Amino acid sequence: QVQLVESGGGLVQAGGSLRLSCVGSGRSFSTYALAWFRQAPGTGRIYLASLNWNGKNTYYADSVKDRFTISRDNAKNTVYLQMDKLKPEDTAVYYCAARTMATWSAAILEYDYWGQGTQVTVSS
Q: What share of the chain in percent tops pLDDT 70?
């Protein structure tokens, strides 16, 4: 069983930056692909970015490709999402997820473990 705990959300003005962190438990965490998703009120959970077990392969949704950066530190069992040039439409609850495979995926159903989410609010 893997537990994921996100942190780093908050209120920021448009154009600002935030860095989200997600700490995972378990010795196998470093072998899993990891991802970030978000869910705005009244909408479904959507994919943002993912990376493989060693962080050398990453994939981004077009909506965040030039503004968000995903990375990981396996020594700390942590995955990060650096968010720059934030927009009001980025307001959502952000979730990290892990899949028990080494390679990244953009498919929500392929992720086995989820954090509880952290709220990000971007004011205009």
A: 100
